[in-house]
Structures are given as C-alpha cells and as structure tokens.
Design goal:
Number of strands: 14
Structural class: alpha/beta
Helix content: 10-25%
Radius of gyration: 18 Å
Number of domains: 1
CATH superfamily: Ribonuclease Z/Hydroxyacylglutathione hydrolase-like
Shape: globular
Bound molecules: D-malate, manganese (II) ion, zinc ion
CATH topology: Metallo-beta-lactamase, Chain A
Largest sheet: 7 strands, mixed
Distance between the termini: 5 Å
Strand content: 15-25%
Number of helices: 9
CATH class: Alpha Beta
CATH architecture: 4-Layer Sandwich
Amino acid sequence: MRVKILGSSAGGGFPQWNCNCRNCAGLRAGTLHARPRSQSSIAVSSDGKRWIVCNASPDILAQIRCTPELQPTQLRGSGIAAVVLTDGQIDHAAGLLLLREGERLPLYTTELVRSDLTEGFPILGLLGHFCGVDWHCIAIDGRSFRVDGVVGVELEALPLVSKPAPFSPRRDAPQPGDNIGLTIRDQDSRRSLFYAPGLAEIGEKVRGEMAGADCLLVDGTFWTDDEMIRQGVGRKRASEIGHLPQTGPGGMIERLREFPSARRVLIHINNTNPILDEDSEERLLLEREGIEVAFDGMELVL
Ligand code: MLT
Ligand code: MN
Ligand code: ZN
C-alpha cells in the first residue's frame, strides 16, 4: 500500500498568507531551513492506479498538479476514486468544491460530518448543482469498510476527541463522529496506517488502535499548548481547538514513546511550529525520539 502525503500543513498552509511569524517570515526571506507546505491531505492506493484521497484541502488542485498518479489518463478523469473525510473542517473539506468539474463524487464521511457539510458549511448542496455527490456513511461502531473501485484497501473509523469546525452546532460539545481517526490496512500485507490529523486526547481505545498499527500519522499541529498565544498570533490554546501539543505532560512526544516499533510521523503542522525549522533544537529533539515530520510529496509504503 502506498500513502502519499499531498499536504502536511495545518489550515492556512506554510507560509500562511497573512502571517509574519518567525517561520513564515524566514521561509519567505529564504533564511529559514524549511520547506513550504500545503494543507492537510493524503492519498492511499494499493495498485497505484485508483486512489482514496483522505481530506480534500483547499490546495487540492496544486496537489494534483504535482502528483502524476492523480492525473487523468483518458480525455477526462482522475486517479481519485473517492474522498474520505476525517472531519468537516474547512482545511479538510473546502477542496471538494474544486472537484466540481468531475464525475459524481463518491464521498465517505460520518453522519455528523455530513450534517455540518449540509448546514453550517453547505457544500454538499452546492455540489449538487455541479458534479453531485454520492455520499456513503462511515460507521463509527468499529465496522470496516471499503471504497468502491479501490481494491486491496480496508478502512476503519475510530471516534476521536478533537473539535468539529467553528460553524458546527456541536463546536463546544463534540459528539462521537465529529472527528475520526482512520485505520487504513493493506489487505494483502495486513500492514496498517493509523491516520489522525486532529487528535486532542489518546484514551484507552485510541491507544489500543495505535498499538496495532505499523505506522502512525498523527496530529503535529503545535509544539506547545500556548504556542499561538506565546507568539502573539492567536488567543486559543491547542487544547481548546482540539489538538494535542507535542510537549508538556502527556504530550504527543511522550505518548508516542508507547509505540516504539511503529513508524511515527507528524502531520497537519501549523506554520508557527518550531519543528518546521529543520535546524531547530525542537526538530533535533524529535529526531532523537525517532519521530518524523511529514512533508509534501513524502511517500510511506506499507
Ligand atoms: C483545525 O485543525 O483546528 C482547523 O482546521 C483550524 C482551521 O479552521 O483552519
Ligand atoms: Mn485543520
Ligand atoms: Zn506564521
């Protein structure tokens, strides 16, 4: 199974259009040893021909432009067999609008995400005026599912503690199904990826799921809980918006030590995060822990 990282950044991308933080300014000036990054999305395939795109970012057109596997092989078409969403946040769903020129779009989400994309951010109705969407419900009871037209890949959703988007009526009272992690398994090799770009808490169930995965591709949004406050770019803590920071007691670095035999990779990295600077102490610390930082174009093979 091949997993292509289409976009490794959190919402806003890196550099973010309106941001002049140390990282964004340094990247623009060419003084920071870092790569630009587009917004959070991955593509998965076992035959290299038909791909499941997990999360459709606002950067999806540029991402397709640099991914030959997703480009048309006939007069009109695409290597994208379907889109699967882990949540209904803008950085994961707005890209659906950019696929409107295509055929009817097979879309897999939970019932709650469908409801947010019908009401607060009504893009499913909008798309009805263009390509139309064939919606498939992702169950959150542990049942696995397959995507029509994609052979050899099995998925399973696990409800996570994180946050639905600000336009969701459940923003302050999240329910199971607002955010999911996906276990994506190659049916031949039985090797699996656990993908959770928004993850605020690792409870016992999530821990069990992570323990069974060969590769963990998880929330790398913030280094510290108060990162945006400390840098003067925002008022919210990581924990308030549904992300577990890397540092601090019970932080991601500490938790990932529980899975020493898995390949461990951070994704959905915010532009303020010091790990983006490849010469930073923070990046060195991650390397010593054996934790990788996803980049656009990175490929994982399972
Ligand atoms: C998040 O991951 O917290 C959201 O995508 C933030 C955003 O709306 O950009
Ligand atoms: Mn996000
Ligand atoms: Zn910035």
